[in-house]
Amino acid sequence: MALPSITYLDFQSGLFRISQAQVLRPDLEAFIAEKYAPFVREIIGDPAYIEIKNETPLVKQKWLDLFNGVDYFNTDEDAMRTHRGLKRVVLGSICFYWVRDSGVVNTPVGNERNKNGNSDSNWGGYFARDRYNTVIQELQDEVYPFIENYELLSGVVGSSIDLGGNAYTINISDTTYLYDGDVVKINGIEYTVSNLIADTSFDIVASATGLDFAGELFSYEPYKDFPLPCINASVL
User: Fold this and answer.
1) Residues with Cβ < 8 Å from 72, sequence gap 6 or more?
2) Which of 220, 225, 147, 226 is nearest to 178 (CA)?
3) Using an 8 Å Cβ cutoff, are 98 and 28 in contact?
4) How far apart are alpha carbons 170 and 159 in whole angstroms?
5) What is the DSSP string of 9-72?
């Protein structure tokens, strides 16, 4: 599994702190292992999940930016936007479900056991719930717009070089989130990318010789088949 690492250490400080006095490390790590992958799979869908699962280690920038966050130019809004990353959403969700399911009271300085089993009003998940609602809102306001921004990218081929044997070099100036093995469409026809040189060129194999791709439209789908939006999971 090539999902970015999340461990008990991610819950020792900061927004998603869980009191270490009330946590057995093996229990929390087992809980992370149980919740992490299914939550991500629900958000991004099976095709993307399987691609990530089979990529070891996780090196494609499109996945690193999806999980860790990035500042990017949103074309719909014509402005720079900040996407703080899917990992934050996962951390907030695990924190909430741990507090809810483990019977601890979440306080501004950590968690403590709820000793009054007869009073729901004393349940201490309010801080975890608020943080969970915060990250689910980030999912809606930051993660999904980021995915949608890069769901389909297009441009114009600058020039092409006939390499012989139906092979061509396609010269383009922007290859954001494009990788060897990806499929691009040029003038509506699908080709498989090889020998990619970032923001410069890639090679394809066509069905004929003597073709010129200069000025043709090309497109590709970095985040293909994402189920957007997949959830509205805020806890009220």
Assistant:
1) 65, 80, 81, 83, 146, 149
2) 220
3) yes
4) 6
5) GGGSSGGG---GGG--HHHHHHHHHHHHHHHHHHHH-HHHHHHHHH-SS---HHHHHHHH-EEE
Q: What is the pLDDT of residues 25-80, one digit of tens each?
A: 888 899 999 999 998 998 888 988 998 988 888 899 999 999 999 999 999 999 99
CA 97 to chain CA mean position, Å:
21
The pair of three-digit structure tokens given for residue 13, joined into one six-digit string: 């400080």
- What is the rounded distance in angstroms from the CA atom of residue 36 to the CA atom of residue 94? 8
- Span 81-107, mean pLDDT? 83
Q: Which two tokens stand for residue 64?
A: 């690193």
> Whose structure tokens read 């383009």?
172
Domains defined for the chain, CATH in brackets: 8-149 (no CATH), 153-220 (2.40.30.20)
Cβ 171 vs Cβ 158: under 8 Å: yes
Q: CB 156: neighbour CB atoms within 10 A? A: 12
Per the DSSP assignment, residues forming a β-bridge with 204 are: 168
Angle between helices 46-54 and 25-44 (to 10 degrees): 130
- Among 171, 168, 210, 175, smallest CA distance to 191 is for 168
Contact between residue 193 and residue 202 where contact means Cβ atoms under 8 Å apart? yes
Q: Give the E-state strand segments of the chain in sequence order.
A: 70-74, 79-83, 104-107, 110-113, 153-156, 159-164, 167-171, 183-186, 189-192, 194-197, 201-205, 217-220
